[in-house]
Design a protein that fits this description.
elongated; TIM Barrel; single chain; alpha/beta; 3 domains; binds iron/sulfur cluster; DNA polymerase, domain 1; disordered C terminus; about 375 residues; two-stranded parallel ribbon
Length: about 375
């Protein structure tokens, strides 16, 4: 008989499964607590369950946390993890440290799909194609796996929280997998689960308009980040192919709708590419777009990847672009990509690993 997978179920669903096995509901709470507060991967490690019960649960249910295949740490402390799922597909998750009084806390950047169908021309994931959506269990599993690794490295007390924020900015377009993303968010947000407040959860989109509207309808107080990256349809068509279907004008309308429905400020991400979208005219067009929306702008100077057709602008260009926006009263920051030395931009570690595997296979074949 197939075992029931518990990772990715809400507390209520876990209670139903456990109750269906003839056990009292409080056992479900214990399991849920071990899973999300202590990142335990096996029933046999759940110390307050009787031994026979651990064996029984192991026969009837499973907890499939993604396996850490590889991890790298950057000079700035960013840690990048390559994780393997039960069907051996691989995804990436990144942990970005922030030092605060009381110790280091991490922002976890999770993937929502294996690969990505959007195909942005500057993105390693987009260039390697789409394989499948992740389940809610595979999304929450990234948080569980990475928090466990971080605790082991930091030798943290097992119950103390290391996570401050979760951002859906890894591989994939989260709004194209909204049902599973929302299920995962309910567990990430649940006080009994991972326990991260909605305002500390960010969903990033390349501009999938139906998804923005659907997210607005949920009433969630999460933060929406929109990867704008261009101020004209002509340029945006070139760098984010989804724009050919979901045009800039409609995108801005959907963002107004989102703001009206949720009362939340939106952040625009703007990747600066030399000779593509970083002129003074672009800066003024961008300010005209974002000012009525009272949105924040994050400028991200591009870090070229191997074989990329794009280049990073000179520092003068970056400074001038920022000054134009600030001069127009836009709330703007320049964000350097964290972990650039370890290929922390989405899809780069997987792409590099695949490249290396192919090279290794080629060299084996030639022997
Ligand atoms: S940037 Fe994001 S949306 Fe675009 S291809 Fe990469 S993962 Fe997909």
């Amino acid at each position: 008989m197939d075992r029931t997978e518990l990772l990715g179920l809400s507390l209520q669903e876990t209670e139903e499964v456990v109750n269906g096995l003839g056990l009292p509901r409080f056992r479900a709470r214990q399991v849920y607590h071990w899973l999300y507060k202590h990142q335990v991967h096996s029933f046999y490690q759940m110390g307050n369950l009787p031994k026979e019960l651990r064996y029984f649960l192991d026969q009837k249910a499973s907890i499939t946390v993604p396996r850490v295949v590889k991890s790298r740490v950057s000079q700035d402390g960013t840690r990048k993890f390559l994780l393997e799922l039960s069907d051996r597909k691989r995804i990436e998750t990144v942990a970005i440290p922030q030092t605060r009084t009381g110790g280091t806390k991490y922002t976890i950047c999770v993937s929502s799909q294996v690969g990505c169908p959007v195909g942005c021309t500057f993105c390693a994931t987009g260039q390697s194609g789409f394989e499948r959506d992740l389940t809610a269990g595979e999304i929450t599993g990234q948080v569980v796996a990475v928090e466990r690794e971080l605790k082991q490295r930091e030798k943290s007390v097992s119950g103390s929280r290391l996570l401050a924020n979760v951002v859906f900015m890894g591989m994939g377009e989260p709004l194209l997998n909204l049902d599973e993303v929302l299920k995962a968010i309910s567990i990430i947000n649940d006080e009994q689960g991972i326990g991260i407040g909605q305002r500390h959860i960010t969903i990033s989109t390349a501009g999938f308009i139906p998804g923005i509207k659907a997210l607005a309808e949920t009433g969630l107080q999460v933060t929406l980040a929109v990867s704008l990256h261009a101020t004209t349809n002509e340029v945006r068509d070139r760098i984010i192919p989804m724009n050919r279907r979901y045009r800039l004008e409609g995108l801005l309308d959907s963002i107004s709708y989102y703001i009206e429905k949720t009362g939340r400020r939106v952040t625009f991400e703007y990747l600066l590419l030399e000779g593509v979208n970083s002129s003074v005219s672009d800066a003024y067009r961008l300010s005209r777009m974002v000012k009525p929306l009272l949105a924040n702008v994050n400028l991200i100077p591009y870090n070229p990847t191997e074989g990329s057709q794009y280049r990073r602008p000179e520092q003068d260009t970056i400074t001038r672009f920022m000054a134009c926006l600030a001069g127009e009263g836009v709330n703007v920051t320049v964000r350097e990509e964290m972990g650039a030395d370890i290929k922390a931009a989405c899809g780069q570690l997987k792409a590099a690993t695949n490249r290396r595997s192919k090279q290794e296979i080629r060299s084996l074949k030639s022997k």
